[in-house]
Amino acid sequence: xxxxxxxxxxxxxxxxxxxxxxxxxxxxxxxxxxxxxxxxxxxxxxxxxxxxxxxxxxxxxxxxxxxxxxxxxxxxxxxxxxxxxxxxxxxxxxxxxxxxxxxxxxxxxxxxxxxxxxxxxxxxxxxxxxxxxxxxxxxxxxxxxxxxxxxxxxxxxxxxxxxxxxxxxxxxxxxxxxxxxxxxxxxxxxxxxxxxxxxxxxxxxxxxxxxxxxxxxxxxxxxxxxxxxxxxxxxxxxxxxxxxxxxxxxxxxxxxxxxxxxxxxxxxxxxxxxxxxxxxxxxxxxxxxxxxxxxxxxxxxxxxxxxxxxxxxxxxxxxxxxxxxxxxxxxxxxxxxxxxxxxxxxxxxxxxxxxxxxxxxxxxxxxxxxxxxxxxxxxxxxxxxxxxxxxxxxxxxxxxxxxxxxxxxxxxxxxxxxxxxxxxxxxxxxxxxxxxxxxxxxxxxxxxxxxxxxxxxxxxxxxxxxxxxxxxxxxxxxxxxxxxxxxxxxxxxxxxxxxxxxxxxxxxxxxxxxxxxxxxxxxxxxxxxxxxxxxxxxxxxxxxxxxxxxxxxxxx
Amino acid sequence: xxxxxxxxxxxxxxxxxxxxxxxxxxxxxxxxxxxxxxxxxxxxxxxxxxxxxxxxxxxxxxxxxxxxxxxxxxxxxxxxxxxxxxxxxxxxxxxxxxxxxxxxxxxxxxxxxxxxxxxxxxxxxxxxxxxxxxxxxxxxxxxxxxxxxxxxxxxxxxxxxxxxxxxxxxxxxxxxxxxxxxxxxxxxxxxxxxxxxxxxxxxxxxxxxxxxxxxxxxxxxxxxxxxxxxxxxxxxxxxxxxxxxxxxxxxxxxxxxxxxxxxxxxx
Lengths: 556, 267
Prior knowledge:
Chain A is α/β, with parallel strands linked by helices. Helices cover 38% and strands 24% of the residues of chain A.
């Protein structure tokens, strides 16, 4: 095992000079990364966690400046290095695993060329020796058939594979420690688990320190020895994983813990009991959901019924043979990884595409994508609140639009109705005069929800509607949705990749994989005794396992 | 736009030049007391305090001719840009929003327009429409239709794929409403920036047409015409070509510089 230095950051302060003056991004940040240990920096967007990471690898933006503090890697103070000196540190001493593997490999270079780039610059190895080393590295990070992959291009690899390649590149020069900046945020949850397992294993076997930047307290709890909680550019709390998660001292840490869905599974708020009718329906459906004997059932007809839904785009089958029912006033979750067909299903329910075969019945009638009336009853809320609102329109105009289009209220009442719905989503009515650019992500998503609800729909489809939000905001929005469902007797179809969230909010769930529905049933049943191995693997990949098991790192 | 941009000396200078040009176009009397159409003193006098730019071959004050010519040039450029902007944007909007065979047809027409040299194209249009200031301006405008149409189409296509466009359909909007209220306003910014760039080049193209004699008829003070009249005296009376030329260069450069700033900010 090689001898490595620790990274010790003390009292770091970074400012950005912008057109609106100097902004203090990070202040009084102190942390350390010991060889073979993982230190996780946890925070929401704007907390300064990425600025800290960029400072530690000398890649701050041009308008940023380190105004105070030191960053020691052994004897070297990284805060005082010139660009030229950094070139000898970055790579040989500090490695970087970037956030989005899909954008981090040069698409015109082979995998081999990308990984050997560092070796080429920093070592005097011969071409053959470099190739041998790269293949060895690829093998080490768990890439199958490395000789073949060596010659492949990034587009031929999956996201998880690309992240493995980037890890290999970061390790190529045997650095003292690596910075992993949200290394799995762009990846599916099952892939996330394998990548984090790999990082975990490599730091032990190669005695490398890891500075793990993450927004997910559960991931930090599972992986880190020490956790640093950041908020508004300041360190709120530092300590061993066990003490930070099980005995948080700072109020912000407590807030984060309470809002993280995967850490609060024990305290799931009890769903309203619609379970009775759903359960009855489940047993009826166990045979064939759409062939039940209607006369024998006293239960109400489902509001939404998806029957053998299949969607093809050319030769590609996005979703095949999907069937489920949603009772009025309940939440049905569609959960799956990217490319599983969950969004395709949701869009068909919202009437933005028509099924290739099969049918989608709303109140017993086939959904007609061309029907304007349908839109009054079924609304869709999008994932990204930054693209789902027209940037040129004020919030008031955006909300008034459906009222005018559907002629729901008279001209004189529009303003009053807009104000009422802004209040309903907990926004001040004076937001009506603002433009989306003046709102935060959470506020935008509230506006998007208000736009969906203002037509008084019966069914709302949420397509990953909280995935782009920070955990505290996500938790606020989820509480808001629960309240609105209660008050307005709404029915939700909730599309998500996040099982922890799904468990919190849904009554029934469909688990999708590669266009197939691999499991369907009552949420509690699916989580407690899944029948499909895929569901099992999804549940196992939910971060926060060590927290729930009570096996957090106590620094012993 | 932030205030720092406006404090740059080059931006201040360009703004002053353009403001002066606009003033000269609106109230030329403010800048000169000489008559641009009739000679007052001797012909071909060199620049002096009395005649800043000297006088031309028939004794007219050159400075006042350049000042009075501003209106012709700026107004012409404005008309030209408006023709290009309006026609081009409408074509681009239709092509981008409709797609299919209509898109293909319109874009092939645009390809044809782009393959003809712009001077040849504007000359052909003038010959069809007849001589004159307005017709010259329309001809110059038509040469820029293709550029506007292409840009507008690509903007429309990229904006159409954004979620808020689909959300607008979800809010019950008709196709026309989505086009005019959601897609068009969000596609226009780069198109407007292009209009600013085209303004400078339109002044140049109009001057070229004027120089060739396809613009305003003879006694009218027009920048291209002024220089054309003076080309016989280029060896003996340099000011007749150099000074009006310098004015054209200053105005075109100012327009281009400001439009680059606008374009940068529009991104």
